[in-house]
Amino acid sequence: MCTRRTALYRTGRLFAAMMAVVAITIGVLVLAALMTAHPGDPDLYPARAEDGETISLVSHGWHSGLILPRAALIGPGGGPALASIATRFRAYPQIEFGWGEARFYRATPTLAQFDARLALEALFTPGGRAGVIQVVGLERPVRESFPGSDIMPVRVSRAGLARLLTRLEAGFGLVEGQPIAGGPGLYGPSLFYEGTGRFSYANVCNHWAARLLNAAGLPITPILDTYPAGLLLDLRWRAGLTALPAATANLSKP
Q1: Which of 6, 133, 141, 162 could be a cystine partner for 195, CB 3.0 to 4.6 Å?
Q2: SS3 145
Q3: Residue pLDDT, tens place only, 12-41
């Protein structure tokens, strides 16, 4: 009987210790999220009804990108890289932009091709690794183009869009004022371009997309934004956004 009580006592203490560790971990994460949160800019977001442009965040499950109207690329905030892309993809009304580590991004069109070695190198190489931007032309509406993805429309002000485009422009490497194409992308009419910035566990593709939205005036929380589901939650929580309904038809990627 005594032995049984002792075992129960030890089990109870172990459970209490585990719960304490969980509580401390959650507390540290919440505190870190609050301390590193970036405020929005109320002068830019939310956009007034008569002053705005709709863009979209698209989450493919492991990776997220932004979809912009092609015509906006040659407006205020854009530069030679975006002007070149607008010309090259002139047949497509909308353009998807996504950023990632050069080798891992190219080698991972879907989770089925996930390579743990490449992922670890991308995340934990000291000093980070070179990034690339994938540019995809979309000829159909966003939901039809990506029926299986989570899509969150974002209404940004014209001034906010200009700041987003300025930041996006700065993400392209240039030679003689032109973006550097690096071969075909992963799907549809697409190309990779050499990017700026270094990819690491502290600066992943979803952080890149979140910072573009922050440039447009939206509040973001980088710790939440590390994974696409967290980024979507962050935008619901802090920016008051709502995702598009799921697709009803069996459509394919562009």
Answers
A1: 133
A2: helix
A3: 555 555 555 444 444 434 444 555 678 999
* Cα dihedral 27, 33, 36, 38 sign: negative
Tokens linked to 102: 């050069």
Number of structural domains found in the chain: 1
Distance CA 215, CA 220 (A): 10
Amino acid at 242: T
Tell me: pLDDT of 6 over 70: no
Residue type at position 84: S
Report the predicted TM-score, pTM, of the whole model to 2 decimal places.
0.84
Judge whether 27 lies within some domain. no
Range picked from 4-18, 82-96, 98-112, 119-133 for highest mean pLDDT: 82-96
Report which of 141, 156, 152 is spatially closest to residue 92, judged by C-alpha positions: 141
State how far the Cα of 22 lies from the Cα of 174, in Å rounded to an integer. 47
Q: How buried is 24 (Cβ within 10 angstroms: 0-12 exposed, 13-18 middle, 19+ buried)?
A: exposed
Tokens, residue 73:
């690329």
Residue 66 lies in a domain: yes
Task: State which H helix or E strand residue 238 sits in.
Answer: helix 228-239
Question: Could you tell me if residue 188 is inside a domain?
Answer: yes
pLDDT digits (tens, 9 = 90+) for 143-164: 999 999 999 999 999 999 999 9
Beta carbons of 130 and 198 less than 8 angstroms apart: yes
User: Helix or strand or coil: residue 68?
Assistant: strand
* Domain hosting residue 103, numbered range: 37-239
Tally of residues, the chain: 254
